[in-house]
Amino acid sequence: MQIHKFLVLTTVLTGLLVACSEPDISPAIISAVPYAADSGDLLVRCGALIDGQSDNARKNVSVLIQDGKILSVGSNIEAPRGTPVIDLSDYTCMPGFIDMHTHIMEDDYTEMSDYYGHSLEHTMLKGREFTKATLMAGFTTVRNLGVYYGGTSILMRDEIDRGDAIGPRMQVASVYLTIPGGGGDIVIPGFPQEDIPAHLRQGVASGPEDFRAKAQAAVDGGAGVLKLIASGAVLAFGGVPGSPEMTPEEIAAVVEVAHAAGITVTAHAHGAQSVKDAINAGVDSIEHASLVDDEGIRLAIERNVAFSMDIYNGDWIDVEYRKQNFPEEFLRKNTETTMSQRQNFRKAHEAGVRIVFGTDSGVYPHGMNAIQFRYMVEWGMTEMQAIKAATSVSAGVMQWGDRVGTIQEGLYGDIVAVKGDPLADISDLENIDVVIKGGLLFKAP
Ligand SMILES: [Zn+2]
């Protein structure tokens, strides 16, 4: 009799449970094109959430994404009928990462002279491979700071935005604005300049008027940021990283065009003088800042100019480029800038310079971007500061703070997750388990 009663009771309870909660629908993984970009509806149940803004992680938070954007963030959110659910209760969720300095159309194994013969089709094929690798590594947004084949990064950005390719959101500089033979030019000793295809040198200019015209052409062609090469570069023939290439007047001409168009401008500047020249001319951020001096750091703080310091790739160049017999000049200049850049990273961070996450990917293979997190922690940031640098701080500097970089209502549903606790071990971010962009699932455990 007792047993019978118990059986009746459990049958009734089970019936009630079935009636109240439907089984969760799992989201499909996007692996083929075309797809409807930024169209996802998804409820993400996070065991821990780092939102990109707060100083602490929160436990058991859900994020509801509707039509690609975050609708609500909280602890008691139920999935609306028909909305897929992903259970990440064993994971730490974060905003999708931002890399502020990529060359996503180019790779590290290509000889400079090979670019002379690369077709548009070849460049786009490579771009599709690298954008996918970058997204799978957890980088849902990149700022692409230059491509030799002018305009291809714009085509890539638009393909991804249409859902015809898989990759991060892209803010693109299109070309390098650089002096003839400068760090963004592709001249090689022994090759006649007149034989270099014109599409590889669209941003090469001399004098303020020429720079103004080339900058305007980049803006008219669809660039979302301008990149100028103020000082010599490590991976270019003849340039001296510590010495200026562009004059203050040339830099100011580019700044004027960018700001008139309502976009930001960033300066490649290794040397102390070029950092100061660029800040005084009004740029919004500095790439590399390897040899910055105290005055440059002071100016950056005073003018709220951000530093994007690629403090990982020096190790890659030293080992891998040496194996591949890259020019001795490149290896020497890399050695001359790598450790001073790391020391200056620590110094600038301690002084209070806004530091974003920029890696110069393409110098090393795309998809390894997250290795730099560990260097940023080793050289003075807390784990949380490094994560914020790659999320909300970068979003603010690229003026996309209303789209990406934090997990809050109204922004794109761009979320990445790892099984471990990146606040305990930052290298966990080198193995991202889950990638969601625009509410669509691109990678799952
Ligand atoms: Zn670069």
Explain the overall architecture.
- It is built from 11 helices and 15 strands.
- With 445 residues, it is an alpha/beta fold.
- It has 2 domains: 112 residues, Urease, subunit C, domain 1 (Roll); 301 residues, TIM Barrel.
- It has a 7-stranded mixed beta sheet, with no helix packed on it. It has a 5-stranded parallel beta sheet with strand order 8-9-10-11-12. It has a 3-stranded parallel beta sheet with strand order 5-6-7.
- Strand 8, helix 5 and strand 9 form a beta-alpha-beta unit.
- Helix 5 packs across helix 6, helix 8 packs antiparallel against helix 9 and helix 10 packs across helix 11.
- The longest helix is centred in the last third of the chain and has 24 residues.
- The termini are far apart.
- Zinc ion binds next to loops.
Write a compact overview of the structure shown.
34% of the residues lie in helices and 18% in strands.
The H-level CATH homologous superfamily of the largest domain, spelled out, is Metal-dependent hydrolases
- Largest beta sheet: strand ordering: 3-2-1-4-13-14-15
Give the amount of beta strand, in percent: 15-25%
**What ions, cofactors and ligands are bound?**
zinc ion
> What is the helix fraction of residues, given as a range?
25-40%
Please tell me the overall pLDDT.
94
The helix tally amounts to: 11
Low-confidence stretches: 1-20
Outline, from the CA principal axes? globular
One letter per element, helices H and strands E, the order comes to HEEEEEHEHEHEHEHEHEHHEHHEEE
- Count of all domains: 2
Looking at the structure, the CATH topology of the largest domain is: TIM Barrel
- CATH architecture annotation name of the largest domain: Alpha-Beta Barrel
Number of strands: 15
Distance between the termini: 48 Å
